[in-house]
Design a protein that fits this description.
The chain is mostly helical. The protein is built from 13 helices and five strands. Bound molecules: adenosine-5'-tetraphosphate.
């Protein structure tokens, strides 16, 4: 039987997850979990590149694992773990740092954006973020990495680092491919459709959090920025707001964009925005209920994390050991 390919993906437990996180990567995880050997991490080591409140970071870590499961990721089929529970991530990151150039990291768009947003704390970790992400991915001999489009540059650099290491020694790492959602690889901010929807947007009305209650979801969609026209048509160049809403509606209903347009032919923006809000709220409610149920069962979640960390460490240590051997680290 052909060996299954490996899929790796992670999300940071910062703030609250948005429907961008759900539509971009998580929905893909759910549909691919039967076909791949999946590793899903909660990236708490990435999270501390921006200051966090320790108690909140701890709590969000559990919330994110509960959310993965509530969204439909099956802990029986997939390895789910917390990044800091597998020390190999930090260890491989250190080695890969020596195969990465400072100039490359200075050019990373996310580093430049976050340096502007966190000018008081441009720490080395923020700059090193893509190398840690390369270590995350390469440790598992990953074939595919489902991510949003904003992570394209980081997956590219992970590929470059893998190839650089493989060329310097001998084939050690699988060179991974990014995988983007067909619809919604970049969900945009409802208040500023030129920007990606983000967990930490200044204006919370621009982001739909997976934790938002029904009234909040509907209110935010009703206020979503559109354009002065009246046609509900997908055209990201001239109708960024409407196109974003159509993508969200398609992702949540499973309809194509053309089918979504047809649903609203002849209708006004007000009706359309309300329908998108109701569709999203209907979908989020059972996820929220299931997440709350899981969070009340901490022993179960910790069991998932313990077993996940063991299975992840076993796979990761194999790669790390190969790397240490190749670079000449004396091993006992
Ligand atoms: N708007 C989005 N549309 C599609 N995919 C998205 N992702 C994030 N936003 C969108 C994808 O979600 C995954 C995890 O993201 P992350 O936790 O590493 O980062 P983030 O959600 O972008 O949040 P950050 O880094 O904390 O930034 P801010 O604070 O600006 O929100 C990734 O696969 C990402 O592509």
């Amino acid at each position: 039987m052909e060996e299954r390919k490996i899929l790796y993906s992670a999300i940071q437990p910062t703030n609250n997850l948005t429907i961008g996180n759900y539509i971009g990567p998580i929905k893909n995880w759910i549909s691919l979990q039967n076909d791949y050997n999946c590793f899903f991490a909660v990236a708490n080591m990435h999270a501390i590149t921006v200051r966090q409140v320790p108690a909140e970071l701890r709590q969000k870590t559990l919330e994110v694992i509960a959310l993965y499961i509530a969204c439909g990721v099956d802990p029986e089929k997939c390895v789910m773990y917390v990044q800091s529970h597998v020390p190999a991530h930090a260890e491989l990151c250190w080695v890969l740092n020596t195969f990465t150039y400072v100039g490359e990291m200075e050019r990373m768009t996310q580093f430049k954006d976050k340096s502007l947003r966190h000018a008081e704390n441009i720490n080395m970790g923020l700059m090193d973020y893509p190398v840690l992400m390369a270590a995350d991915i390469l440790l598992y001999q990953t074939d595919v990495v489902p991510v949003g489009l904003d992570q394209r540059q980081h997956v590219e650099i992970a590929r470059d680092i893998a190839q650089r290491f493989n060329n310097a020694f001998s084939p050690t790492f699988k060179v991974p491919e990014a995988l983007y959602a067909k619809i919604g690889a970049k969900i945009n901010d409802l208040q500023d459709p030129a920007k990606k929807m983000s967990k930490s947007a200044e204006n919370p009305n621009g982001s739909i959090f997976l934790s938002d209650d029904r009234d909040t979801v509907i209110r935010k969609f009703k206020r979503a920025v559109t354009d002065s026209g009246s046609e509900i048509k997908y055209d990201p160049e001239t109708k960024a707001g409407i196109s974003n809403l159509l993508s969200i509606y398609s992702a949540f209903t499973g309809k194509t964009v053309a089918e979504a347009e047809a649903d609203f032919a002849g209708k006004g923006y007000g009706d359309f925005k309300l329908a998108v809000g109701e569709t999203v709220a209907d979908k989020l409610f059972p996820i929220q209920k299931e997440q709350a149920r899981l969070l009340a069962d901490k022993a179960y979640l910790e069991g998932v994390l313990r077993s996940g960390a063991e299975r992840a460490a076993r796979a990761a240590n194999k790669t790390l050991s190969k790397v240490y051997k190749k670079i000449g680290f004396y091993q006992l």
